[in-house]
Amino acid sequence: MGSDDTRQGETPVALITGASSGIGAATADRLAGAGWRLLLSGTDPDRLAEVADRTGGKALPQDLATPDGPRLLADAALAATGRVDALVASAGLGWRGPFVQTPPDAVDRMLEVNLGAPLRLARELLPGMLARRHGRIVLLGSMAGQVGVRDETAYAATKAGLAMFAESLWYELRGTGVDVRIVLPGPVDTPFFARRGTPYQRERPRPVSAGKVADSVVATITTHRDRVFVPAWLAGPARIHGLAPGTFRRLAARFG
Question: Which of 120, 130, 140, 230 could form a disulfide linkage to 90, CB 3.0–4.6 angstroms apart?
């Protein structure tokens, strides 16, 4: 978010979910270096405290898998700073395996954390942003939500829903001074795969670093870029899927 988006003399405030590790922690490092005031949420209090100490942020532990979690987090954030200029919704859960073997509680938690929590947090924080006529809602999507991925059906569905939320909200917010952004990475080298219970097993695309994704997150806050693939070449397969899904499926079956 550029300096013209906040009142002169005010330090911009970012709320980052999933800040205990991975993309969230790397984004906290980048924004701290740029002089932002940080509110950091995660479910691992010890690691969250380490990130908060390192970045000068305030730790706000919260389980976003509960329906009240996003509201409680938004209330705590606004109580701490009075406003949030940028929401970075990077918390996410995954599960890999045939859909019929996906545990129901895993589906429920993915729906809550990957999709429900960003919607609920945006709903809580948008009124203040709209009243001030500046703000950013930054959503961490996934290439899986653009093209679908075998054995990650429920996860891909949550990320596809998040992408359509971003697209629809983009139309609503035009001209308000508040912008919605979405970052669409492929696989990322983070604890995500260990937490879901299975390692990343595909030959391509190769995982990128959390720092590389964090750089793109910051770019969506500080520039006019509102839809970013990481790495950038993934935009090509996404376009092929949109224009010729049959062709994409044949290519994916052969090379994927």
Answer: 140
